[in-house]
Design brief:
Layout lengths: L60 H12 L9 E6 L6 H11 L8 E5 L4 E2 L2 E2 L1 H9 L13 H12 L5 E5 L4 H4 L10 E6 L12 E4 L5 H11 L3 H5 L1 H10 L4 H13 L5 H15 L2 H13 L2 H9 L7 E2 L1 H8 L3 H13 L4 E3 L2 E4 L2 H11 L4 H27 L23 H10 L1 H13 L3 H17 L3 H18 L2 H17 L3 H14 L10 H20 L3 H17 L3 H17 L3 H17 L3 H17 L3 H18 L2 H17 L3 H18 L5
Parallel strand pairs: 1-6, 1-7, 2-5, 5-6
Antiparallel strand pairs: 3-4, 8-10, 9-10
Helix pairs in contact: 3-4, 6-8, 6-9, 8-10, 10-15, 12-14, 12-15, 13-14, 13-16, 16-17, 16-18, 16-19, 18-19, 18-20, 19-20, 20-21, 21-22, 21-23, 22-23, 23-24, 23-25, 24-25, 25-26, 25-27, 26-27, 27-28, 27-29, 28-29, 29-30
């Protein structure tokens, strides 16, 4: 059954009921109301075909409340029953919730609770609807020889028998709305609960209430474990319990398995069990739902099966039509069709308007399915995906950051995998943030499979993303990987660039010694680039390495030493006529002058840098130079000019989606407001800055 374990008994059993099970969560016991010889004049028992309540149910309060409200708000009339659709991946607890809803509605629907698992009646993917009607009619008192033989006859009997009833009908494993429609009772006072993997879009009139079920939250997953297992280790090792819940991915079916392991191995410490359970789930999957996932996989088209297998190499949980096209390389139409099939089959989590997601345990199942495919399938899909992501990131970077120093070759368009449409800089920046997990994952994937050029090439656009969204753990991992890839591929300019860009997140995380080591190696490697005879691009790289070293000195408070490197970098940029380099070094020298107590010099340099940023149409630098200039002017008492610059910097930060810069600007505006006695304005800016930092996981400075 949907999220349950089937059991069979061979031979003859001369007892009324036989139960065979390794573990029983909820027992679905179908009992006919009478033996074959019962007549229609005998008293009929009200059917109740759901198992008893279980004591380890967790959460789903919102879903239950929505159903009860819908039933309570249901008008007396109407042409058909209230239809509730529960959908989600196998193992998420749909059937268990359906049973719980049926129990809670028993008083409102006193004429009985009926249950049919359509998969029990499915042959070669098709349900024999006449048999399903027979399963529903028998508990309603219609048995041979009065049970009609034809589908049409049984359909009439069913409508007649249910016309004035108040029933709850649970239909499990519904794949298509069309197979559920003939099984809907005739009474508007009845409630039908449909359990499916995907959306039942072809229900006539649509389901009145559609409830997508996702995995349990970490808190509720831990709560379910504690309900199932009473063990002192859970209190003694709470971190291990949280990790166990995470391994199970919030799936109740997986949490049942994890609980079994805890009960079975009572002498073992939980950390040891975690490793064993992780290996077990990766290699064998979930016995409770593995057959469900296997059946869903076999039931989709060859194209959808290929996509499912290839999703195992996608390094992020979300899946879009663009990603599907990149993996398949067969064009957007076939990719969309395959993606829709996987969503309908319940092999992907559908989240409304958000991209579909692949659960971690289903990813492991997809990887097991991939072992049966050709050796080259995964490698080809992986290469297409990495190259597609590299191309899109390069395009986004070019639009968001404009012309700048890069060394990677541009990736050509990929056959069968269209480009993402970027209409503005904000689109490009938003895409980089949305896809950051996949981009960082592709860096690791590329390096692990020998695609070194792509590994460090991806780091170039990730630098642009890092400037506005400092996700340090991912950034440090990617730039270390990028440096290793550049070293292994023997690309010296890329290696210098990777070392410089790695140094910044290191010093921002107070790893100053490691940052200094990276920069000293980078500067030494550029000694060959300092000669006037060297190409301008290599000399520009040396200027950049000097700039990074100067920035590290400034972070450590050595502004005089920083100014030496900034001056050296400025001279190179002026010699090679790199206008942006001149702008940047002028800005940095202005900061150094301000820090060393020369506000007049700082004002001169920052005004010059701010003007150059406007002339070069550098929005980010216009905001940042204006912000620094505003800080100097505020200290000089030129408050109105400072506020004007801060306001412009605030607009720029918000347009770029840079919460980091916006919080800094709001702090400065708060200080200005305090200086003029505007306590309300200051409070408003400080609260906004606090909210931004809290959302980003950063502490107030």
């Amino acid at each position: 059954m949907g999220d349950e374990t089937r059991n069979t008994v061979s031979g003859q059993a001369r007892i009324d009921t036989v139960v065979q099970a390794g573990h029983i969560g909820e027992l679905h016991h179908h009992v006919h109301m009478a033996t074959a010889g019962t007549t229609t004049t005998e008293t009929q028992v009200t059917p109740y075909q759901v198992p008893p309540e279980i004591n380890h149910f967790e959460d789903r309060q919102e879903e239950q409340s929505r159903v009860l409200r819908a039933v309570a708000d249901r008008p007396g009339g109407g042409s058909g029953p209230l239809v509730v659709s529960l959908r989600g991946i196998g193992g998420v607890g749909k059937t268990t919730l359906a049973f719980r809803l049926a129990r809670s509605l028993r008083d409102r629907c006193p004429d009985g609770v009926l249950y049919v698992d359509l998969d029990d009646l499915r042959r070669d993917g098709v349900v024999e609807i006449a048999d399903a009607l027979g399963e529903l009619l028998r508990p309603l008192g219609v048995r041979p020889p009065w049970l009609e033989e034809s589908f049409a006859g049984r359909a009439k009997q069913y409508l007649t028998r249910t016309r004035d009833k108040r029933l709850v009908v649970v239909l499990d494993n519904v794949r298509y709305g069309a197979e559920a429609v003939p099984l809907l009772p005739a009474s508007a006072a009845s409630v039908v609960v449909l359990v499916s993997h995907g959306s039942l879009y072809d229900i006539e009139g649509g389901a009145a209430l559609e409830l997508p079920l996702g995995p349990l939250t970490d808190e509720h997953a831990v709560g379910l474990l504690r309900r199932i297992v009473d063990d002192p280790r859970l209190d003694a090792e709470p971190e291990a319990v949280a990790e166990l819940a995470r391994i199970c991915g919030g799936l109740p079916a997986a949490l049942q398995v994890g609980a079994q392991w805890v009960r079975k191995h009572r002498r073992r410490r939980l950390p040891r069990l975690l490793g064993e359970l992780t290996a077990e789930l990766r290699e064998r999957g979930l016995p409770v739902v593995e057959a469900v996932w296997d059946a869903a996989y076999r039931d989709v088209s060859p194209e959808a099966r290929t996509l499912y297998r290839l999703l195992a190499v996608h390094p992020a949980p979300h899946v879009t039509a663009d990603i599907a096209a990149a993996l398949l390389g067969t064009g957007p139409d076939s990719a969309e069709d395959a993606l829709e099939e996987l969503e309908s089959a319940g092999l992907l989590e559908v989240r409304g308007t958000q991209p579909s997601r692949m659960h971690g345990l289903l990813r492991a199942h997809a990887a097991r399915c991939a072992r049966e495919a050709s050796d080259g399938e995964a490698a080809e899909g992986r290469e297409r995906l990495v190259r597609w992501y590299t191309r899109q990131a390069q395009r986004a970077d070019a639009l968001a950051a404009g012309p700048r120093m890069t060394f990677a070759e541009r990736v050509a368009p990929l056959t069968g995998a269209p480009d993402v449409e970027f209409t503005a800089k904000t689109d490009a920046l938003r895409w980089l943030e949305t896809e950051r997990l996949a981009l960082h994952g592709c860096v690791r994937t590329a390096h692990a499979h020998g695609m070194d050029a792509e590994a460090w090439a991806l780091c170039e656009p990730l630098w642009t993303h890092f400037l506005d969204h400092p996700h340090y753990a991912d950034t440090l991992d990617s730039f270390r990987t990028g440096a290793a890839a550049a070293l292994r591929s023997g690309h010296l300019p890329a290696l210098v660039r990777m070392r410089c860009q790695l140094a910044r997140p290191l010093w921002e995380q107070r790893a100053h010694d490691e940052a200094r080591d990276e920069l000293e190696q980078a500067v030494r490697a550029t000694d060959l680039f300092g000669d006037a005879e060297q190409p301008a691009r290599e000399r520009k790289l040396r200027a950049s390495a000097l700039e990074f070293r100067g920035k590290l000195a400034s972070v450590q408070g050595d502004w005089a030493g920083a100014a030496v490197d900034f001056e050296a970098s400025l001279r190179i940029h002026m010699e090679i006529r790199n206008d942006y380099g001149v702008l940047l070094q002028t800005y940095l020298l202005g900061q150094a002058a301000a820090a060393t107590g020369d506000p007049a010099r700082a004002t001169e340099l920052l005004e010059r840098a701010h003007a150059m940023a406007g002339e070069q149409n550098r929005a980010r630098m216009a905001s940042r130079t204006g912000f620094e200039l505003g800080r100097v002017l505020a200290r000089l008492g030129r408050t109105d000019q400072a506020r004007e610059l801060f306001d412009a910097a605030l607009v720029g930060a918000r347009e770029r989606g840079s919460g980091f810069d916006e919080a800094r600007v709001r702090d400065a505006l708060a200080a200005l407001d305090e200086a003029v006695g505007d306590e309300d304005g200051a409070r408003s800016h400080r609260e906004a800055a606090h909210t931004i930092r809290a959302a980003g996981g950063q502490l107030d400075t």
